Each structure stands twice: as structure tokens, then as C-alpha cells.
Structure prediction request, 182 residues.
Amino acid sequence: MLNLRLCSLEDIKPRYVQLVLEWRNQKQIREMMFNSNIIQLDEHRKWIESLDQGDKIAKVFCYNGLPMGVIQFTYLNREANIGEWGFYIGNSQAPKGMGTLLGFTAINFLFNDLKLRKLCAEVLSFNKISLSFHQKLGFSKDGVLRQHVLKKGDFYDVHIFSMFKNEWENHKEQIKQQLEEK
Prediction:
């Protein structure tokens, strides 16, 4: 049974730098990102340094002390408390339901700790798992940017999702109950 009390979000400390790079470069993760190129160590370090500049936050999602995945958050508009997130489970040994735990933990953090008002997401049209994941978590689909991203010689749509804090408050108990049943 999965336990929400065993979830935590940790800063990307030096001990996680190599692990997160390995996760980011896994084929199944890269293919779902807008940029599918292999990430080099110097590029990865620049990304980590950019996290200290205030508009981006990244955390390692841990379950029972073990790193499982990453969330990244970027402020789109600080004044309006609007941001965008991205995430993945990188640990290939992660048990079923870990993505939902990551989502629940991250969304609570973004709305409660960062005091976000609105959370947005962009999902590539072929990423069926992420499309249904956002709907499961209670996001609303705001629209589609048609043929918006070029990958491997083809153009793909990008689905736009958003959720307000009050919508999360109305939906999170349902997600919590589903997690407790697993």
C-alpha cells in the first residue's frame, strides 16, 4: 500500500546531479520532452545553476527516502502566481502508482508552499499517459496548439492544461482516496 507520508521533495543536491542527468537522458523520458537531444554534463550543470535564479525550481521526488523522479516548476507570471510544471519518474524500479504520488505531492507543494494560484502544463499529443494523467489529477484542457513542435521530422500538437488552487482543493481528496486504495 502506498503511503503519502513517505513522500518528500528534496533540492537537487550534489549527490543527485549525476542521477538526475541519467534519468533525463533515458530514452523513454527524452522522447516525451520537447527537446529529445542527449543532455551533456555541462548543459545539465547550467540547468541546475539556473534553478538558483528564482524563476525555476526543481526537486527530486523521494518515496521512503529513495529518489523516484523529478518535478520542475517555472514561474510564468510571478505577479499573478501562475506557473508551469514538468515531471517524470526516472527510477525504473518505481512501484505502480508512484507517478500519482509524485503528482499529488508536487501539486500540494506548488499550491500550498509556493502559494500558486494557477498551474499550467503543456503535453505533446503522442504522450497519451501524460494526457490522461493530467485529466486524472483534475486539470482542465484549455486548448491545443496545432502542429506546434517539430520532432524527428514531424509536427505534433501540444495540449494545454491548467488547474486553479480551488479546483485542486475540490479534487485532491478523490486522488488521496485512490492512492490509499492502492
The chain has a mean pLDDT of 94. The beta strands are 7-11, 56-63, 66-77, 82-89, 118-124, 140-151, 154-164. The first strand starts at residue 7 and ends at 11.
